[in-house]
Amino acid sequence: MKTLNICAALLFSIFVINFSNAQTSLKKETIKVWGNCGMCKATIEKAAKSAGASTANWNEENKELKVSYAVNRSSSDKIQQAIARSGYDTQDFTGDTKAYDKLHSCCKYERKSAAGTTKSTACCNDAKCVKDAGDCKSAQCCKDKTCCKS
Ligand SMILES: [Cu+2]
Fold first, then answer.
1. pTM of the predicted model, to two decimals?
2. Cα(first)–Cα(last) distance of the chain, in Å?
């Protein structure tokens, strides 16, 4: 009976060690992903999961994708590349143009610009983005491009 208890204790400790290892190798990250709507959300999250993310939640308002993944199964680059292949720009990768062209019309988001400055001007010229306008604080594009400041 005693040996059985020792065995059980041993098995249990192995289980605990494995469990804590699995936990430490899980990484959480927030990745900026351009997009528009709920349909984009589904595509983005599906792409992230196909690249090994165990959880993926894209926020339409702030364009942030919160992912968690096991570091031995995936990486931020891997996830972003999968999203880019499905047509969406991410903070480090540019979405595939052919895939972008195939997106539903409502999903044709404003592309991330290579030279951020030109896009920033266009964005700030938007009526909603005018400095001191009531909408400015709530319009995401203004907050992103920091038109509201200064
Ligand atoms: Cu969409």
1. 0.63
2. 75
